[in-house]
Specification:
Chain A: It holds the Pfam family Fer4_11. The complex is a heterodimer of chains A (251) and B (402). Chain A has a single domain (60-249), classed as Alpha-Beta Plaits. Chain A contains seven helices and nine strands; from the N terminus they run αβαββαββαββααβαβ. Chain A has helices at residues 7-41, 71-80, 121-125, 151-155, 189-192, 199-206, 223-230; strands at 56-61, 95-101, 107-112, 131-133, 139-141, 162-163, 182-183, 212-216, 246-249. Chain B is mainly α. In chain B, helix 2 packs parallel to helix 13, helix 7 (159-182) crosses helix 8 and helix 9 packs antiparallel against helix 11. Chain B is globular. The interface between A and B is large, with 55 and 49 residues.
């Protein structure tokens, strides 16, 4: 079908081939890690809705969590634009809880964020539907329809929620908050949607404790799914059958 | 014998003085709410531990009393006691007024009171709060229709049907109010189905106490005749309702005392809870139940108008104490997340939460009471809510007519 090649064409083709090969090599080097990362993180395009195929969860190993360390709390405050004050009227999205067994004297230290229940009482009681659970299990407050009735705070068995008691300044544009509305840990949803881990987990890793693991409980290959399958883990107030997204090891 | 209803004259110094005092209280209440709205809840005594404070104590009391105030009308309409029929207009009026006052406090205490329209347009039907929004609005509509059947010739054919519907509605409404707490699984003081019927019994008690006081107040103030036959029947009924309240409170605590896991909570309320223990024993039990019962059932004091008024007032104060212990006490006792462990954190885990209400909260609560009373005082001046006379002669005639 094609015309026979002329000698001068051969020379030109040879150059072109070399050029193409070089280009491909350069492009490949540049793109490959990205493609590889894309595959590892199973990222979804921004326009795609979150789906119930994913259930975000957090596993906290209290044996690795050190008493007095509050790196996760500090990181949360920085990421989400919280002042970090600890008065009775100040917001705390994650707190360090120290517990001591009254019989044995055993002490544990553990971080306590919103537990992101599968059946969240805060969502059940919210009159307007401002408290809601995303398909991927993250429990959030819609700041536009929260009327500040605080019924969710009455209903939460973990005391995970705070009311914004005073006017706010210097907010993180990615984390809208508002006076008179209720708020809580969002699992750093803005980071999770960019395929990053929550700020608290990152800080715990950076401090070398690695007490917090974040991941997709529905993905059998994820570290969190493998660990909860292998080792005994605990839900706080498991008697309530809320199937929390946050689980603990070592208590 | 036909009952004549007439507006009160409402020209006396006493009447305008009463309205002036109430108007000042209402203005202070609204002013407090505006101040809170501007500065945020930081200016109140409420915080992330005690999320519902004194405004809720007043609001829930008024809402519970509202449904109870309708009982007098229900006794006449549903249970056919014609003796009470002359009082059913005031009963309906008080129900509406108390609910309006209570809802005003509840709404103005919201973090975002400006978003009231959101509460009216977005509904999560799994929320008992959302149901209550519908139940409250429905209550207004039904009781207004009920009053129309009482006061307009054209409505009389519907009187029994609407009255029965209003009675059923008010029972559902108070079930809803009690279930605000009953459906809370998180806190030990709540999470009990018993709270719904308990709140219904409380409503009988508080509603009748308010009704008696208002009735005696207006008749004394306007010099109209109010015979002992009417008052004594109602004060006996109040005594029974107070006894029933005491019974339900007893069952609630005896149940908790039987369950070992609730011993901590019970010790807190009954023995070492400071202000909550004091308010429970002195406020709710002694002043709210035992003392008024002793007065009302006493052969001497129970026939004296002043003592009956005092007993009614005590029942109301006892009701406010009960709401304080239920609402604030229930939150002050820490949530038990780790049974068998001693717990501490920067977020006040494991400790009894302190609460000192600010003056703003008290003014908002009293503002709601004032608005309710203004509505009543104004309505009896412009419409025919009160019978001209309720002396023993007319009451006997009515009693015989049943």
């Amino acid at each position: 079908m094609s015309e026979p090649l002329r000698p001068e064409d051969k020379i030109e083709n040879g150059d072109r081939r070399a050029f193409l090969a070089a280009t491909a090599a350069v492009a490949g080097t540049a793109v490959a890690p990205g493609v590889l990362l894309y595959g590892m993180a199973q990222a979804k395009p921004a326009e795609e809705a979150v789906s119930a195929k994913v259930r975000w969860g957090m596993l906290i190993d209290t044996s690795k969590c050190s008493t007095g360390c509050t790196d996760c709390v500090t990181a949360c405050n920085t990421e989400n634009g919280l002042a970090g004050k600890t008065g009775p009227q100040d917001s705390q999205w994650i707190r360090k809880v120290e517990i001591k067994n009254l019989q044995t004297g055993a002490k544990h230290s553990l971080p306590m964020p919103c537990q992101h229940c599968e059946h969240p009482p805060c969502v059940d009681v919210c009159p307007t539907g401002a408290s809601f659970k995303r398909a991927d299990g993250i429990v959030l407050v819609d700041r536009h329809i929260c009327i500040g009735c605080r019924y969710c705070m009455m209903a939460c068995p973990y005391k995970a929620r705070s009311l914004v008691h005073e006017p706010l300044t210097d907010q993180n544009p990615e984390v809208p908050r508002g006076m008179g509305c209720v708020e809580a840990c969002t699992f750093c949803v803005q980071r999770v949607d960019r395929d990053e881990t929550p700020a608290c987990v990152e800080a715990c890793d950076a401090a070398g404790h690695k007490a917090m693991v974040f991941g997709n409980l529905n993905d059998p290959e994820s570290e969190i799914a493998k660990t909860v399958k292998t080792y005994a883990t605990t839900e706080v107030r498991a008697d309530l059958n809320l199937n929390t997204g946050v689980r603990y090891q070592g208590i | 014998m036909k009952i004549a209803f007439r507006e009160i004259e409402g020209k006396s110094q006493g009447y305008w003085g009463l309205l002036a005092v109430l108007a000042v209280l209402a203005a202070l209440g609204v002013g407090s709410a505006l101040y809170m709205e501007h500065h945020g809840h930081i200016v109140t005594g409420m915080d992330n531990q005690i999320v519902w404070g004194l405004p809720h104590v007043f609001a829930v009391f008024l809402i519970v009393a509202a449904s109870g105030a309708l009982n007098v009308a229900s006794i006449a309409t549903v249970f056919g006691k014609t003796l009470y029929k002359p009082l059913n207009r005031l009963s309906g009026l008080l129900a509406i007024a108390l609910l309006a006052g209570g809802l005003m406090v509840l709404v103005l205490d919201l973090g975002r009171a400006d978003r009231l329209i959101v509460a009216m347009t977005y509904y999560n039907f799994k929320s008992i709060f959302a149901w209550n929004v519908i139940l409250y609005n429905g209550f207004f509509a039904i009781v207004i229709a009920y009053l129309w059947t009482m006061m307009d010739q054209k409505g009389q054919a519907w009187y029994k049907a609407v009255g029965t519907f209003a009675f059923v509605w008010r029972l559902i409404l108070t079930t809803g109010t009690g279930s605000i707490f009953g459906f809370l699984v998180a806190r030990e003081a709540y999470d009990a189905a018993l709270l719904a019927p308990t709140f219904i019994v409380f409503s009988f008690n508080y509603g009748l106490a308010v009704f008696l006081l208002v009735l005696m107040g207006f008749y004394a103030g306007t010099g109209r005749a109010l015979g002992d036959k009417m008052v004594n029947r109602m004060k006996n009924l109040l005594g029974v309702f107070i006894a029933a309240s005491l019974y339900f409170v007893f069952v609630y605590h005896i149940t908790n005392l039987y369950f070992t896991k609730h011993h901590g909570l019970e010790a807190f309320i009954l023995m070492n809870g400071g202000i909550h223990t004091l308010l429970f024993w002195v406020g709710q039990i002694i002043l709210g139940y035992l003392l008024p019962m002793a007065i009302l059932f006493s052969p001497n004091l129970g026939n004296n108008r002043g003592w009956i008024a005092l007993a009614s007032l005590l029942a109301i104060l006892g009701g406010l104490a009960q709401m304080y212990v239920t609402i604030i006490g229930g939150q002050a006792y820490p949530i038990e997340m780790f049974p068998g462990y001693e717990v501490s954190s920067s977020f006040y885990d494991g400790v009894v939460h302190a609460y000192s209400p600010s003056g703003l909260e008290l003014m908002l609560g009293l503002g709601g009471v004032a608005v309710a009373l203004i509505l009543v005082a104004f309505a009896v001046k412009v419409l025919r809510f009160l019978p001209e006379r309720l002396d023993d002669e007319i009451v006997s005639a009515l009693h015989g007519a049943k």
